[in-house]
Amino acid sequence: MVRDLGLLAARLTLGLGLAAHAAQKAFGWFEGAGPQGAAGMMESLGLKPGPTYATAASANEITAGLLIALGLGGPLGPAAVISNMSVAARTVHLKNGFFAAKSGVELPLLYAVGALALASSGYGALSFDHVLGLDERLRHPIITALALAGGIAAAETILAQRDFSPPDGTLATPTIKGEHNGQPAGTKPSPATS
Length: 194
Hints:
The chain is an all-alpha fold and 194 residues long. The chain has helices spanning 2-27, 34-44, 50-70, 76-93, 106-121, 128-131, 135-138, 141-160, and strands spanning 179-180, 183-184.
C-alpha cells in the first residue's frame, strides 16, 4: 500500500504539474504566455506554423498529464511527456546549462525521468488502469518499449521539420544569444550583414 500511495503522489505531482504547465501556453492561465505567446515562441524555434505546434504541444501535455494523474493508459502518457520534453530540452533548454533558474534542462529532464519511472513501474493499485484490469497488460515490457519508441520517434520527426526561413521565403541563419545576424555582440556589423 505504501508503494501505491507513493506512485499516486508521484502521478498527481507530475501529471497535474504538467497539465498546469501546458495551461499556461494553451489558455494563459497561471501567468502564462497564452496561445499567442506560445505560437510566437514556437515560430522562433523553427516550429512552423507556430499556432499549430503550440496547440499540439499544449494538447499533448494536458492529455498526457491527465492520463498520468488518473493512472490511465499505461505508458502512453509518459511516452508523450518524454516526447514533448525531448523537443523542449533540445530546442530551448540544453544550451542554457542545467538549472531552471537560467532556463536550463532541469525541468524538462525531471518531467521526462519522472515519466520514464512511471512508464517502467506502472501506476499502482490506486489507478484507473488497475481498476479496469489493464495494468498488467499495459505494463508489459514490449508495450512500454513500443510506446516509448513512438514518443522518441515523434520528437525526432518534429525536430527534423524545424524551419528557420522567414515568412518571405528567404533563408535565415539562426543566431546565437548575444549575436545580431551572426556578428558577435558589440562588434560593428559588416556591410553584408547590416
